[in-house]
Write a structure and sequence with these properties.
This protein has 967 residues and is mostly helical. α17 packs antiparallel against α18 and α27 packs antiparallel against α28. It starts with 16 loop residues before the first helix and ends in a 5-residue tail after the last helix.
Length: 967
C-alpha cells in the first residue's frame, strides 16, 4: 500500500464544447457527402486521445477503424498495414498481402471497400498520427482528396500541436485544443477525487495543473486522502518532475544531450520570474558558450517547436513544458546551471540577477549573500516585482535567524501578491513561523494575510486579521497600522457592517515609520509600485463610495511630517460619512480630491475617485478612475488594475454609461481571474448583471447574478449580494413582473435584520417603490419613500432628487398631485446626467397620463422615453414603451402569429400575464385596471382563442412566444 489516493480516470469528456461540435459536424458531413476529414491538434495531456476515443464510441452510422499504436522502429507503410489489419479484423479475417508504392497513395478507399463491403459510412480514427511513417501519412492525406464514390469515409486523426502543419494534411480542418477552463477542470477533479476535496486544496491543484487534464490526474493520484481533505500539508514541490515528465517527457526525450542542456539553461534563466516573456537570449547564449555549447545546439529544440528564439528572448512553448525541463533535471544540474548563469552576468549592472542565480546555486545558509539579496532587491532597481519576491524568498532560505526569515518571507509574499500571484504569496506566507516572532513581524505578516483574504476569501476573516495587524503594528509602525485599519474598514464595508467600519477607523497615534532592522528590506520611496509597505493594491470586495487606501512610505531618515498626512483626511472623511454626517465629511474628502488633480499615483487617484462619489460628482469619479486605470496599465500593476476597473465600471454605471460600464467590467473580470481575486470578480459580475438588466439580456442577468452570489454569500460580501439581487429585481420589473421584483427587493430595502447593504440598498429603493406600487403594496411603498427622502437630502446621489419626485408621484393620491410631481421629476432630471433614469420617469408619466385619458400628452412623454431607451440600448424597456404607445392609438401593433393576432393590445397584455401565472387581482394591479375589467377582457380572450382554461391559454401563449410571435 502506498497511502496515495486511488483515482479512476473518468470516461466522460470535460468542457471541449467547440471540439465536440466539430466532431459532430464531421459525422453529419458523412450523410450527404462522400468524405470528411478532421485533425485534432493538442499538446500532451490535453485530452486529444480521450476525445478521439469518445468519438469512436459515439459513432453509430457504420463501422469504426481504430488501429493500435505502432512500434518505434517503423518501416514504410507500417501505419497503413496496421489500419488494413484492423479492417480485416472487423470481419475476423487476416489482412490480404498488399504491396505499396509511391504511385498508389490514392487507393486506400478501394482497399477498405474490399475488406469491409457495404455502403454505410466508415469512420477511420488514428491517434498520434504524427508517429506514423511518412508514406502512410501521405496515403491518409490522399484519401481525403480522392473520396470513394461508393462509400462515405470520415477521417478523424489526432496529432501533436507542433505537427499540425504537416504537408500531407494540407487543407484539412484543424481543431486546436487549449487548456480546460476552470469549470471543466474543477468537474474533472471532483470526479477524480469523489468530491472529497478541501476547497483550498482544490484551488491549489487547479492552479498547479494549468488546465492540463493529465497533470491534474497525476496530482490527484499522488496525494493521500488526508492531503486532499486538507488534514495534512501538501508536498513541496506539489508537482514533482516525475509527474510532469510522464506527460511531456516524450517530447524532450528524443533531443540530443546538448539541446537538453541548452533548454535547462533557458529554463533556469527564467526561474526567478517564471511568468516573464521568456528568458534573456543573450544571457543564455553567453552561458552556453562558456559551457562549450555551440549555439546550433538549440536547433533541434526549435525544430521540434519546444522553444522559440526570436533574437532577444528564448520562449518555451508552454509554462508546463518549462517546468518539466527545470524540475526534471537533477538538483545538481540545476545548481550548476544557475552558477553558470551567475558567472556570465555583469554583477555591477545587474546585481540582483547575479546574486539571485548565485543564491539558487548554493546549498545551506549564507548570511552575507542573504544581506546582498535584500539590498539589491530594494526599490529603485530596474526589475520586476516577482524577481524581487524571488530574491527575498531566497534570502529567507539563506537566513538562519527565524524572525528575520519570517520578515523576509512576508515581504516576498507581498511582492508576489502585488504582482498578481496570490498563490505564490500564500505559499510564502505558509512558510512563515507563527506565534513566537516579535509583534512587529507578526503584524506585517497579518497585514499581508488580511489583504489576501480581502481579495479572495471571507471578509470576516480579513477584518479580524487586519485589526490584529493594526494592534501589533501600532507601537512601532503607526503608518502601516493605519493602513491595516483602512483595509479592515474595507472588509467591514464589504460585509455591510457600518459599526465595524467606524470601529476600524478609530483614532490611533500616528508615529514615524518603523526603523526595526527586521524590516530593513522595506522600500523607502514612494515611486516604487511594488512596495510591501506602500501597499498599492488594497482591494475590497465591491464598489462602494468609500474606497480602500494605501500608505505612502516616508524615507526612513525623515520623521512623519505631517499634521495633515493625506491618509488622515481620507480616514476622517470616511469615518464622518459612514457615521451619517455627510456635510462634515465633505471638506476632508474635497481635499483628497483636490490633491489628486495633478497626481499620477494610481491608488491616490482611486481614493480621489471614491471621494468624488461621496461628494456626488459622478463625472469626476469617472475621469479620475479612468486616469488611475491609464497609470496602472502603464506600470503593469496586475494586482491593482482589476480593482480600478471595478471602480470605473461602477462609476460609469452610476452615470448611465452602460456600454462603457460593460466593457470595463468585462475587462476587469478577466483581470480579476488572472490575479486570483474572486471577491473582485464577484463585484464585476454584479455590475455586469446590472448592465444586462438595462439591456434586457435575461440570460446574462441570471448568469452574472448567479456567479456573483455564488462567491459573495460564502465570503460574506453583502454589498455584492445586494447589487446582484437588485439586478435580478430590475430585470423582473423590466419584464413586467412587479410581484417578483418586490419579493426580491423587499427584504433588502426594509430596515432590520437581513436587509441589504446599508448604502447600496438606498440606490435600489426607487425600483422597490415602483414594484411595490404595481403589486399593490402601497403601505410598504410609502415607508420606503420616507427612507429615500432622508437619503436624497444628504446629497450623495445626484439622481436621488428626481427619483424621489418620481416615487412620490407613484404613491400620490388620485387628485392630480402626481402630475406636478412627475413634471418636477423631469425638471430635476435635466440638471444631472442619467438618460436611462429620465426615460423611466417619462415612461411612468406616460402610463399615468394614458390612464387619466390624456392620450396626446401621454404620446409625447412615451415617444421621448422610447427614443431614449433605444439610445441607451434598453430594448425591453423600449418594448414596454411601444406597448403603451400602441394603447394610446399611436400605431397598430405588429401582426402576431396564430390566434394571438385576434387580440387587442390590452387583451394580449392580460393573456400574457395570466399565462405567467398571475391571478386576476395581480393582473389588475400590474396594468392599473380593476379586477372586473380583467375578468371582462379574459372572457373575451377565451372566446376569441377557443380555450376553456387558464392552462390551455398558457400553453397557447407559450407556443406563440417561442415561435417568435411577440409583437
Amino acid at each position: 500500500m502506498t497511502g496515495h489516493t486511488r483515482v479512476d480516470s473518468p470516461c466522460r469528456i470535460y468542457g471541449r464544447t467547440t471540439e465536440l461540435a466539430a466532431v459532430a459536424a464531421l459525422s453529419d458531413q458523412l450523410r450527404p457527402q462522400r468524405v470528411g476529414a478532421l485533425l485534432l491538434a493538442a499538446e500532451p495531456g490535453l485530452g486529444r486521445s480521450t476525445l478521439l476515443a469518445g468519438a469512436a464510441r459515439e459513432f453509430t452510422l457504420g463501422p469504426v477503424l481504430r488501429p493500435r499504436p505502432l512500434p518505434r522502429n517503423l518501416r514504410p507503410y507500417d501505419g497503413l498495414r496496421a489500419l488494413l489489419g484492423e479492417a480485416a479484423g472487423v470481419r475476423g479475417a487476416a489482412p490480404p498481402p498488399v504491396s505499396f508504392g509511391a504511385g498508389r497513395t490514392d487507393e486506400l478507399p478501394a482497399l477498405l471497400r474490399q475488406l469491409l463491403p457495404g455502403g454505410e459510412p466508415l469512420l477511420v480514427c488514428v491517434d498520434d498520427v504524427h508517429l506514423w511513417d511518412a508514406p502512410s501519412r501521405a496515403v491518409l492525406g490522399a484519401a481525403a482528396r480522392h473520396p470513394d464514390p461508393g462509400r462515405p469515409i470520415g477521417l478523424l486523426l489526432s496529432l501533436a500541436e507542433h505537427r499540425a502543419e504537416e504537408p500531407e494534411f494540407s487543407g484539412w480542418t484543424v481543431v486546436r485544443f487549449g487548456p480546460l477552463d476552470d469549470n471543466a477542470a474543477a468537474a474533472l477533479l471532483r470526479d477524480l477525487t469523489g468530491g472529497c476535496l478541501d476547497p483550498a486544496v482544490r484551488v491549489e491543484l487547479l492552479s498547479e495543473a494549468e488546465g492540463n487534464p493529465a497533470v491534474l490526474t497525476a496530482l490527484a493520484q499522488r496525494l493521500t486522502p488526508d492531503q486532499l481533505g486538507g488534514r495534512r500539508p501538501l508536498p513541496r514541490p506539489l508537482t514533482g518532475g516525475g509527474a510532469l515528465w510522464a506527460t511531456f517527457g516524450s517530447r524532450l526525450a528524443p533531443l540530443p544531450p546538448p539541446a537538453r542542456q541548452f533548454l535547462l539553461l533557458a529554463a533556469a534563466a527564467q526561474e526567478p520570474d517564471p511568468d516573464a516573456a521568456g528568458a534573456d537570449a543573450s544571457l543564455v547564449l553567453r552561458a552556453a558558450r562558456k559551457a562549450g555549447l555551440d549555439p546550433a545546439a538549440l536547433d533541434p529544440a526549435e525544430a521540434a517547436r519546444l522553444v522559440h528564439h526570436d533574437g532577444d528572448r528564448i520562449t518555451f512553448a508552454g509554462s508546463l513544458l518549462r517546468r518539466t525541463v527545470y524540475s526534471g533535471a537533477p538538483s545538481s544540474q540545476r545548481r550548476a546551471a544557475h552558477a553558470l548563469l551567475a558567472s556570465v552576468i555583469d554583477a555591477d549592472r545587474f546585481r540582483l540577477r547575479h546574486l539571485l542565480h548565485l543564491a539558487l546555486a548554493l546549498r545551506g545558509t549564507d548570511a552575507v549573500l542573504a544581506a546582498g539579496l535584500v539590498e539589491a532587491a530594494a526599490p529603485g532597481t530596474p526589475t520586476s516585482g516577482m524577481e524581487r519576491s524571488a530574491a527575498l524568498s531566497r534570502a529567507a532560505e539563506l537566513t538562519a535567524h527565524e524572525d528575520a526569515r519570517t520578515a523576509l518571507l512576508t515581504a516576498a509574499a507581498d511582492y508576489a501578491r502585488l504582482s498578481g500571484h496570490p498563490r505564490r504569496a500564500r505559499l510564502l506566507l505558509a512558510a512563515t513561523r507563527e506565534g513566537a516572532s516579535p509583534a512587529a513581524v507578526q503584524g506585517r505578516t497579518e497585514l499581508v494575510r488580511g489583504s489576501m483574504a480581502l481579495r479572495d476569501g471571507p471578509v470576516g476573516d480579513a477584518y479580524q486579521a487586519l485589526l490584529m495587524a493594526a494592534e501589533r503594528l501600532d507601537p512601532t509602525d503607526a503608518e502601516a497600522a493605519l493602513e491595516a485599519r483602512m483595509e479592515a474598514m474595507d472588509a467591514a464595508w464589504a460585509a455591510g457592517d457600518a459599526a465595524a467600519c467606524i470601529a476600524a477607523l478609530a483614532e490611533a497615534p500616528f508615529a514615524a515609520p518603523s526603523r526595526d532592522s527586521a524590516f530593513a528590506y522595506a522600500p523607502t520611496g514612494p515611486a516604487d509600485p511594488f512596495s510591501p509597505v506602500r501597499r498599492v493594491a488594497s482591494v475590497r470586495s465591491g464598489p462602494h463610495p468609500y474606497p480602500q487606501t494605501q500608505t505612502q512610505t516616508q524615507p526612513q531618515s525623515q520623521p512623519a511630517a505631517a499634521p495633515r498626512h493625506p491618509m488622515l483626511d481620507y480616514r476622517a472623511g470616511l469615518r464622518t460619512a459612514i457615521d451619517g454626517h455627510l456635510s462634515e465629511a465633505a471638506p476632508p474628502l474635497r481635499r483628497v480630491l483636490d490633491r489628486a488633480r495633478h497626481d499620477d499615483d494610481p491608488t491616490r487617484l482611486l481614493r480621489a475617485g471614491v471621494a468624488a462619489l461621496v461628494l456626488g460628482d459622478i463625472a469626476a469619479a469617472c475621469r479620475t478612475n479612468a486616469r488611475a486605470l491609464a497609470v496602472s496599465r502603464s506600470r503593469g500593476l496586475a494586482s491593482l488594475t482589476p480593482r480600478i476597473l471595478e471602480h470605473l465600471a461602477y462609476a460609469e454605471l452610476r452615470a448611465g454609461q452602460h456600454a462603457r460600464a460593460r466593457a470595463h467590467a468585462q475587462e476587469g473580470l478577466r483581470a480579476a481571474h488572472r490575479a486570483g481575486q474572486r471577491n473582485v470578480a464577484a463585484g464585476q459580475h454584479a455590475i455586469l448583471a446590472l448592465v444586462a438588466s438595462v439591456e434586457d439580456d435575461v440570460a446574462a442577468v441570471a448568469s452574472h447574478a448567479g456567479a456573483a452570489v455564488e462567491i459573495a454569500r460564502p465570503h460574506g460580501l453583502l454589498q455584492t449580494v445586494t447589487l446582484a439581487e437588485w439586478a435580478s429585481a430590475r430585470a423582473d420589473l423590466c419584464r413586467g413582473r412587479p410581484f417578483e421584483a418586490a419579493a426580491r427587493l423587499g427584504p433588502l430595502t426594509r430596515p432590520g435584520p437581513g436587509r441589504g447593504h446599508f448604502a447600496v440598498r438606498m440606490l435600489a429603493l426607487p425600483c422597490f417603490v415602483e414594484a411595490a406600487v404595481q403589486s399593490g403594496a402601497s403601505a410598504e411603498a410609502k415607508a420606503a419613500v420616507e427612507d429615500f427622502t432622508l437619503w436624497a437630502a444628504q446629497g450623495t446621489d445626484p439622481q436621488a432628487p428626481a427619483q424621489l419626485a418620481r416615487c412620490r408621484a407613484l404613491i400620490a393620491p388620485p387628485d392630480g398631485t402626481a402630475d406636478a410631481l412627475y413634471a418636477l421629476a423631469l425638471d430635476l432630471h435635466e440638471t444631472v446626467h442619467g438618460d436611462f433614469e429620465r426615460a423611466r420617469t417619462q415612461l411612468l408619466y406616460g402610463k399615468w397620463l394614458r390612464r387619466r385619458r390624456r392620450p396626446a400628452e401621454a404620446k409625447n412623454r412615451l415617444r421621448d422615453a422610447l427614443v431614449t431607451f433605444e439610445r441607451c440600448g434598453a430594448p425591453a424597456w423600449a418594448d414596454q414603451t411601444r406597448a403603451e404607445l400602441r394603447a394610446t392609438g399611436e400605431a397598430p401593433a405588429p401582426e402576431a402569429e396564430g390566434g394571438l393576432a385576434l387580440l387587442t393590445p390590452q387583451q394580449l397584455r392580460i393573456a400574457r400575464c395570466v399565462a405567467e401565472g398571475s391571478t386576476n387581482r395581480e393582473v389588475a394591479l400590474t396594468l392599473s385596471v380593476s379586477p372586473r375589467t380583467v375578468d371582462h377582457h379574459l372572457r373575451n380572450v377565451f372566446a376569441l382563442l377557443g380555450v376553456r382554461s387558464r392552462t390551455e391559454l398558457s400553453r397557447l401563449v407559450d407556443r406563440a412566444e417561442r415561435g417568435g410571435a411577440r409583437p
